[in-house]
């Protein structure tokens, strides 16, 4: 899975792998706040809360699985957001390789999978994330995770996520969460998703 390791005891701010105005279905204005302000605050708070926690120099998944309260919330949100921002780009907008085979086997088709994923994202009450993960038996599962939770807490390998906190879409889509969810397929890079298996 995609894990993140501290450098000299500190987690670093990720750089976007594309220009802030490049994605189209997410505006540069939204990305400026979402990446530049929200993620930055989570990274800064995580680094402030780590000293004395006993979890210094551990990979981020271990911090998430062994913390509570503010430390947990900020650690979870850093992993969630890095995986969210990293999975977008301008190519590979259809599943590839092993993940394509697993989608066909476990959901019947890419269209069926997208429908279920969007439906779970649209019906998640409040703030959170909809995730595609692989379980220990090698099957794909879609889960709704509230607030800062991540499927790694339940022993799953997280592969793909859509952020349904309002800050992820409100500037561009206002209350139309379903429109935001269906637009994101245009920018998912499935090579990145497959690399997380
Ligand atoms: Mn967010």
Main β-sheet description: 3 strands, antiparallel
Radius of gyration: 16 Å
Distinct bound molecules: manganese (II) ion
**Low-confidence runs of at least 5 consecutive residues:** none
In quaternary terms, these chains amount to single chain
Cross-sheet strand order for the largest sheet: 2-1-3
- By DSSP, the count of extended strands is 3
Helical proportion, percent range: 40-55%
Separate helix tally: 8
**Shape estimate:** globular
Summarize the structure in words:
This protein has 197 residues and is mainly alpha-helical. Helix content is 44%, strand content 11%. The chain has 8 helices and 3 strands. The protein has helices at 28-49, 60-65, 69-86, 97-107, 110-122, 170-173, 177-183, 190-194; strands at residues 128-134, 140-146, 157-163. It has a 3-stranded antiparallel sheet, sandwiched between helices. Manganese (II) ion is lined by residues 34, 38, 81, 163, 165, 167-168.
